[in-house]
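Fold these two proteins, one after the other.
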Amino acid sequence: MAEIISLGEPLIEFNQLREGGREVYLPGFGGDTSNMAVAAARQGASVAYLTRLGQDAFGDMLLALWQAEGIDTSYVIRDPVAPTGIYFVTHTEAGHAFTYFRQGSAASLIKPEELPTEAIARAKLLHLSGISQAISTSACDTVFAAIATAREQGVLVSYDPNVRLKLWPLPRAKAIILETMAQCDFCLPNLDEASLLTGLKEPEAIVDALLNRGAKVVALKLGAEGALVADHHQRHAIPGLRVATVDATGAGDTFDGALLTELLRGAPLAAAARYANAAAALATQGYGAVAPIPRRAEVEAFLASQA
């Protein structure tokens, strides 16, 4: 039985590199909830992934990835017609940019009646994303149906809004994401998107606003500056860690997976956030969303070196 179930849209990634004076694209894996699942599995959590894949080579690649990581793929549906989504990452002085080819993807066609409700009921935590709500109406309905099942069964719910305004207009994104945040136990935004959603700029004020909306725990990711984590009884500023950053793709998802794994292991909130912050920092030291995600031994050694 998986203790964490993650639901969403996985993608095949093509990440821009410069080699020998020319640009090449390195194939890899992406999709926020899939990245989170890999991060949690690499920290030792028992994880299952819920999605739909095309009956194509890219879908085969994703299945092989999850199986290699020890992630339960029993609930993955293969679609004989719709494709597996892909995206490209390009890099400039301003940071990384994404170009997606995901319209009509197999994952976007997921429906509430396809949810394995018994598996969700047996889990400890259900992880979801705003991207999964943005890719289609049926996927959005599926996310809310999964939350309803989890809440009925006393299963914890974690949610990363991962706002992508290329997928939906801001008014719709705000309405749906803020409503979802009110139904979650763990709210995991970054500063830019939380500011966009709340209209606030200061991290402390943002955390207050999200707690007041109903989230039980808020972990506000501040990039290189670390994180601010809080519930209604405690608050901790976690300082950033300096590393040789190459590519920040997937760092936030790594933070999510590491934080939730630690909390399920019984770690106090501050300790779990310090661990997650270290895992996310390490995840920026290589190209791609998945390849650089560290394993537990690497994170623990890095934390020991910072002591």
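Now the second one:
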Amino acid sequence: MLRKAPPLLLLAGLLLASGCGGSSPSQATSGSSAAAGAAPEGGAALSADARSAATGDIPDTQNFLTLRAPRLRVSMLYPEGWTVQERGSSVSIADKNNLVRISVSGATAPTAASVQADLSTLARSTSGLKAGPARAVSLKSGPAVRATYTTLSAPNPVTGKQVTLTVDRYELAHSGRLAIVDLGTPVGVDNVDAYRRMIESFKWQ
């Protein structure tokens, strides 16, 4: 004969099951978090999700919020409605396959040669990555090095199609800290003006 479990035990079991679903990001807005969660930390390449639809151009009327990452001690504007996820020494901001990642570490100031060498090393371990030349640029936050690379997503498991991302990488240094800012968008989507506004708003805290 089956015995009914006491109500308190049933309640405890439900609470335990609901608590095992994973932790929520430290800071988030509405939108898809799958792409942001897939982005690795550090200087690794951004990775698109072949199962995620491409996002359209960011409109001129887009409202921007200020991202404040106390752990990284940086701030930057980002489009309202995008998902924000802070993980260790990096923070990812995403809306489907529009991907932005900021990572901060202790390192010396970058040069065009060092950034080019890093991307060449990355290309040997990342299938489909192609990097253009790196060059010094001037941002409102100070001098930086900029390079552009493209990457391919893994094939869609159903259609076999791949998504190509174009990524603008900026490396900036301040007081012994190095920030790598990757701003990626699917090929065919024009986010040049919005991404320029974002990188120009970057500030050290």
